[in-house]
Design goal:
Layout: E1 4-22, E2 28-47, E3 55-58, H1 70-79, E4 86-91, H2 102-117, H3 124-134, H4 140-143, E5 146-150, E6 155-159, E7 166-171, H5 178-187, H6 196-202, H7 207-212, E8 215-216, H8 225-236, E9 242-243, E10 250-253, H9 257-269, E11 274-279
Parallel strand pairs: 1-8, 3-4
Antiparallel strand pairs: 1-2, 2-4, 2-5, 5-6, 7-10, 7-11, 9-10
Helix pairs in contact: 1-2
């Protein structure tokens, strides 16, 4: 068993996100299609002396490296309230406050990596239960690929992998508070389309058909200036801009990489903080 594990852990987008209700405990129910994409954080986990307290470091200064971090919480669930014998370094590439699940993905990678590194007798179902208890998106990242999500995002049905379709993804400096986004959505009175059924029906179609039917209820209540700029530029290239999660990253997919790259050049020229051309990636 090696003493160090290096794990690349992907971001996700929501090909669709329909908010279907609100539970008495305040959580919202959804119907969504999750998809992993080729933007990665990297976790390096190293075993140390058994009596040495765990440390967590990160290249991003705004990321907390204590019990507030989902990676730390994952370690506590597997190693106890005062985890020892482990150092973790987190190299962030997935943008924060983007709706792309970076923290949840890091959490899932930590759960898998700690189980492997310490040869813990934790079954896959038990690991999934721990992940789901830490965050609605965490369990998805134990699957990856394409999944249909129900409930509060914890009822997951893996779907056949998509081909590697080109994507352009952009985010400005502005972030979106998830509680505020849900408050706005709860107050929104107009009926919103439900896109998940159309996305599920189009998964076996070509890329342009699939990405033309993608949608997100949070698009209706998100009016940040930078998001509007991203939408305008993507539409000028004939693409369908869609928020991921509650934002503020916006993605668009298409059949031709050249089209995504041309759109990305215009997004970069607009001075946006994060612009990348990537692709959908399969499970595993």
């Amino acid at each position: 068993m090696p003493d160090t594990l290096i794990i690349r852990t992907p971001a996700k987008i929501n090909l669709s996100l329909d908010i279907t209700g609100r539970l008495p405990n305040g959580y919202h129910t959804m119907h969504s299609v999750f998809q992993t994409v080729g933007i990665y954080d990297t976790l390096t986990l190293t075993k140390t002396a058994p009596d040495q307290p765990m440390t967590l470091t990160c290249n991003a200064p705004d990321v907390p490296c204590d019990e507030r971090n989902l990676v730390w919480k994952a370690a506590v669930r597997l190693l106890g309230d005062q985890p020892r014998g482990l150092t973790i370094h987190l190299e962030k590439q997935i943008p924060s406050q983007a709706g792309m699940g970076g923290g949840s993905s890091d959490c899932a990678a930590a759960l898998k990596g700690i189980r492997q590194l310490f040869a813990l007798p934790v079954s896959d179902p038990a690991l999934h239960a721990i992940a789901a208890s830490l965050g609605a998106d965490c369990a998805f990242f134990l699957y990856g690929g394409t999944c249909c999500a129900g409930g509060i995002g914890d009822e997951l049905t893996p779907l056949p992998d998509l081909p590697r379709y080109p994507l352009v993804i952009a985010k400005g400096n502005e972030g979106i508070s998830t509680p505020e986004a849900y408050r706005r959505l709860d107050a929104y009175e107009a009926a919103l389309p439900h896109d998940t059924k159309h996305v599920l029906d189009a998964l076996q179609s070509d890329a342009d058909t699939l990405f033309s039917v993608c949608g997100n209820h949070f698009d209706a209540i998100t009016d940040l200036v930078e998001v509007e700029t991203i939408r305008r530029i993507m539409r000028s290239h004939g693409l369908n801009p869609v928020l991921s999660g509650s934002g503020a990253a916006v993605f668009a997919g298409c059949a031709e990489p050249q089209r995504a790259e041309a759109c990305a050049r215009d997004l970069c020229a607009a001075g946006l903080a994060f612009v990348t051309v990537t692709e959908t990636v399969p499970a595993g």
